């Protein structure tokens, strides 16, 4: 399916260094397997937090620090209250946040322009998990457990591929490391036949076929949602319910390289507040919620987009995309002399058939259907007649019918199967270890 390892870890050379089109940060250090596998020195602290970005309205006016602080304080209050709130399981996270933020603005009788407060919450929701405009559940919001300590850590000038090196004990010259010779690239799995009389699983690609005792499925939730014919027979109802109900979002990263930077050294970027009267003719532009500086890339701005127009951004003609970006930057950054970029590159996770989206989230529908990562992570068993090696004397007579046992054939891993660390690399890694342990315990506890 792909000509490289890594999936949603995708580091590439760009401008003066590397960029990450997918995973970029190690989120915290406590109980974070990715952090534990890294060398402490190769991780750097990222300075680009919400607190030190500019917030600029589409009339070019920067919001004063005092007003930004006031609004961030209100958000903090909303989050603090949320922990003890009896949240309606049918309300989306986006609607909940807007409602509670508005309530706090009124309750505290804050003296801020109400249209500005509305613009702020629209952009804040996009930034927060990138899942604005989705049916992300407010009720299940706290199912995600952040790893404490150190915030956002980056891989300095190496990119997240450095972690893949740790994972397989490889390096730039030997990217597959200890798995050299064990990975077949460019194979698109077309069908997984899992209920065969001999208990094996047959994985069919375009040309090749692989027979296996067990298969660990790590397709993204987006791929699973789009693959009605991938499994033969179809997966059990509980898995189908999980796949159909859980949420999978769309996020797009837009890397813009300039000949020279046009911003001061201490500037970290801006969050865009679109005023109702300035909404752009190209609706996709308003899904880009800001441009931020990128660590170890002195001439690059990284734009972030999420929402219903991500697919349009991924498929739009490149020249139209660049024109739109330049227009947007000029519109918001009126105090800067914005130059035409040398190069623009965007991630294409939602239109890439190998991913079909960015990462999973707990949805209102999953809460309603009482399903989620735990259901998706359940292995699937088939009933097989137990066979023994001829040397095994415990089966004495050939006339005996061999006992029927339940053999786990399909295992599920990947970020969407993590109940508390979904949408992250550490969640994906933990899930792989979880399934490896499951296979080991199966062999330890069974007579195979
Ligand atoms: C824009 C973006 C930013 C992110 N930022 C961060 C971050 O800063 N920190 C963080 O921790 N996480 C981040 N994440 C999330 C993180 O990247 C993922 O959670 C994690 O990499 C998922 O790993 P996985 O193994 O579950 O799935 P994937 O990495 O998606 O692996 C799935 C694999 O399945 C393959 N595949 C799919 N279909 C087929 C098929 N039919 N046949 C054969 N192979 C197939 C794909 O090619 C891919 O290699 C980000 C994700 C995105 C998209």
TrEMBL record:
InterPro entries: Amino_oxidase, FAD/NAD-bd_sf, Flavin_monoamine_oxidase. Residues 2-440 form the Amine oxidase domain. Pfam families: Amino_oxidase. It comes from the Eukaryota. GO terms for molecular function: polyamine oxidase activity. This is Amine oxidase domain-containing protein. It comes from Drosophila navojoa.
């Amino acid at each position: 399916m792909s000509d490289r390892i890594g999936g949603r870890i995708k580091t590439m050379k760009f401008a003066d260094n590397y960029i990450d089109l997918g995973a970029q940060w190690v989120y915290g250090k406590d109980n974070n397997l990715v952090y534990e596998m890294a060398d402490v020195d190769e991780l750097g602290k990222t300075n680009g937090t919400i607190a030190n970005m500019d917030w600029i309205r589409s009339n070019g006016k920067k919001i004063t620090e005092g007003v930004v602080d006031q609004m961030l304080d209100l958000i903090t209050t909303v989050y603090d209250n949320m922990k003890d709130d009896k949240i309606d399981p049918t309300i989306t996270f986006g609607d909940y946040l807007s409602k509670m933020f508005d309530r706090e603005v009124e309750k505290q009788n804050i003296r801020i322009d109400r249209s500005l407060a509305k613009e702020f919450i629209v952009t804040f929701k996009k930034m927060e998990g990138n899942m604005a405009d989705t049916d992300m559940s407010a009720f299940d919001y706290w199912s995600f457990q952040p790893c404490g300590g150190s915030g956002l850590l980056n891989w300095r000038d190496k990119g997240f591929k450095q972690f893949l090196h740790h994972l397989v004990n490889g390096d730039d010259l030997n990217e597959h490391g200890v798995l050299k010779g064990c990975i077949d690239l460019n194979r698109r799995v077309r069908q997984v036949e899992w209920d065969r009389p001999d208990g094996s699983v047959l994985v069919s690609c375009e040309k090749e076929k692989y027979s296996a005792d067990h298969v660990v499925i790590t397709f993204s939730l987006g791929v699973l949602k789009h693959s009605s014919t991938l499994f033969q027979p179809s997966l059990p109802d509980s898995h189908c319910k999980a796949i159909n109900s859980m949420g999978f979002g769309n996020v797009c990263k837009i890397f813009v390289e300039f000949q020279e930077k046009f911003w001061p050294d201490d500037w970290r970027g801006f969050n865009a507040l679109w005023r109702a009267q300035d909404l752009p003719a190209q609706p996709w532009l308003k899904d880009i919620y800001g441009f931020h500086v990128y660590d170890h890339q002195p001439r690059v701005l990284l734009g972030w987009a999420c929402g219903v127009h991500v697919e349009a951004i991924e498929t739009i003609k490149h020249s139209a995309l660049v024109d739109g970006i330049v227009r947007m930057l000029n519109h918001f950054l009126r105090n800067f002399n914005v130059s035409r970029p040398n190069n623009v590159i965007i991630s294409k996770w939602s239109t890439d058939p190998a991913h079909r989206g960015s990462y999973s989230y707990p949805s209102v529908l999953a809460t309603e259907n009482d399903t989620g990562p735990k259901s998706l992570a359940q292995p699937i068993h088939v009933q097989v007649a137990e066979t023994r090696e001829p040397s095994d004397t415990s089966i004495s007579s050939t006339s005996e019918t061999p006992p029927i046992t339940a053999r786990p054939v399909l295992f599920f891993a990947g970020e969407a199967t993590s109940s508390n660390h979904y949408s992250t690399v550490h969640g994906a890694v933990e899930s792989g270890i979880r399934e490896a342990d499951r296979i080991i315990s199966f062999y330890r506890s069974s007579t195979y």
